[in-house]
Design a protein that fits this description.
about 80 residues; alpha+beta; about 30% helix
Length: about 80
């Protein structure tokens, strides 16, 4: 799992084939959104919290993207082994 200066990534749910992760701001402790499997696109995606708008700096976005890429790489490896 990535180490981020800006966000904390917490596992919040486990489904039969996928997991759900909460993305939490280190500065405000607010949940910014979740990363979960989006079946129509067959990939993990970020879903922003609807309670309030978020503003993202590029480094914070890079951290979330890197995390999603790790999830997708792991899923691809699992599929090859199955």
């Amino acid at each position: 799992m990535i180490k981020s200066k800006y966000v904390t990534i917490m596992l919040t749910g486990v489904k039969p084939k996928t997991s759900v992760y909460s993305i939490i701001s280190k500065s405000s402790c607010d949940e910014l959104g979740i990363v979960k499997w989006y079946a129509p696109w067959r990939q993990y995606c970020f879903f922003p919290t609807e309670e309030f708008g978020t503003i993202w700096a590029r480094n914070c976005l890079k951290d979330v993207i890197a995390f999603i890429e790790e999830l997708m790489d792991a899923r691809t490896k699992e599929a090859k082994c199955a």
